[in-house]
Each structure stands twice: as structure tokens, then as C-alpha cells.
Design a protein that fits this description.
The chain is mostly helical. The chain contains nine helices and no strands. The longest helix is centred in the N-terminal third of the chain and has 37 residues.
């Protein structure tokens, strides 16, 4: 693989990563509820999910899932259900408006696992991520000369750049955290985030 090919691939990946999607909303939801650390843990879960999907695509397992109607539909509807579940959670929080400071100890660690799980599951159950890998990677891979390592490099680039973009988002949220702590602002953002997650779930459900 040449640097020029990889540079072209980076340009495509950056455009995809910067587009708002479920990952962005999940990180925003968790950073509002758990601060920088909460958003970072959720971002780590998304990164792991991306790496798993990228590995599956690079090794050919992703194509098997995409071409198996029962497997693909199961993954799709799990994704729809989970995005809607997260969205309704955020909407419920906005409706109640009962925001309390995070506590230390076991409860805090339990929250940390939950945030990681939310990030991981929201990504791993989203078949659009797998389809992205399967549609973009072959355009930059020549079976005659490229290797599995080349495919893994391209796949992992998506996960790493996506994680870097989520970190930028987290730093921005952290900088304006005082403003975000206002109850009215927090309720509005939770409502917007929840609505967006439900919307992404509905769009996923509507796709053929």
C-alpha cells in the first residue's frame, strides 16, 4: 500500500468520522451525565466496538454477516432497540430533570461499566458501521498485492480517528461544563440527545 492511497483513504475516513451519528450522541449523553470521565469511558467502548467490527470486515467475517439475512436482520433490530432504549433514557432524564452529583465508590465503578457497555453495544449492534467497512475498504485494497495487515490497518484507522474526534468533542464539553450544569440547559441537551438517538433508531429500522 502506498502513502498516496492511504492519504486518499484518510480523506474519506475523516469526512465519515466528522458526520454526526449515534456514537456522537452516546458520548454526549454520557459526558453530560458523567463528566469527562463518563464520556471517555463511553468513547472507549465505542473504540472497542469499532475495532471488533473492523477486524471482522478485514478478515472476511463481516461479509458473511452482511450476506446472511437472519444474522444481519438480528443485528439490525438489536441496534434499533438499543438506540431507542438509550434515547428514551435520555428523554426520561430530561422529563424528570433530577440531576445529582456523581458519587465515588462502588456505585461510580458500576456507572463506569454501564457507560462502557453503552458505547460498545451502541456501536457493535449498528450494522451501518459494518456496511461502512465493507463498502469503503475494498475500494482501497487490491487483492493481488495487498495483505490482511493492510486491511487491518485501514480498518483500525477508522476506529482510531473516530476515537480522536470523540476526544475533541469531550474536551469541548469539558470546557463549557459550567454552562452545561445549568438545569435548563442540561434538560434541553438531554431532550435533543434522546430525540436524536430515537431518530437514528427509527432511520435504521426504516432502511431496507
Amino acid at each position: 500500500m502506498t502513502w498516496s492511497v492511504y492519504g486518499s483513504y484518510l480523506a474519506v475516513v475523516v469526512a465519515v468520522v466528522l458526520a454526526p451519528g449515534p456514537d456522537t450522541m452516546v458520548v454526549l449523553k454520557n459526558s453530560l451525565a458523567g463528566g469527562f470521565r463518563g464520556g471517555l469511558v463511553a468513547s472507549s467502548g465505542i473504540l472497542v466496538g469499532n475495532l471488533v467490527q473492523g477486524t471482522a470486515a478485514a478478515l472476511g467475517l463481516g461479509a458473511v454477516i452482511a450476506h446472511s439475512q437472519p444474522l444481519f436482520l438480528t443485528l439490525k433490530w438489536l441496534g434499533v432497540a438499543y438506540l431507542c432504549y438509550l434515547g428514551f433514557q435520555a428523554l426520561r432524564g430530561a422529563w424528570k430533570g433530577d440531576y445529582q452529583s456523581l458519587e465515588d465508590g462502588e456505585q461510580s465503578r458500576a456507572r463506569g461499566f454501564r457507560r462502557f457497555r453503552e458505547g460498545f453495544l451502541s456501536n457493535i449492534t449498528n450494522p451501518k458501521v459494518l456496511i461502512l467497512y465493507l463498502s469503503v475498504l475494498p475500494q482501497f485494497l487490491d487483492p493481488a498485492v495487498t495483505t490482511t495487515l493492510d486491511a487491518l490497518l485501514l480498518a483500525y484507522t477508522v476506529g482510531v480517528l473516530g476515537f480522536a474526534w470523540l476526544l475533541v468533542l469531550l474536551f469541548f464539553v469539558h470546557r463549557v461544563r459550567v454552562w452545561l450544569r445549568r438545569r435548563r440547559v442540561r434538560r434541553t441537551l438531554d431532550a435533543v440527545t434522546g430525540g436524536a438517538l430515537v431518530g437514528f433508531g427509527a432511520l435504521l429500522a426504516a432502511e431496507a
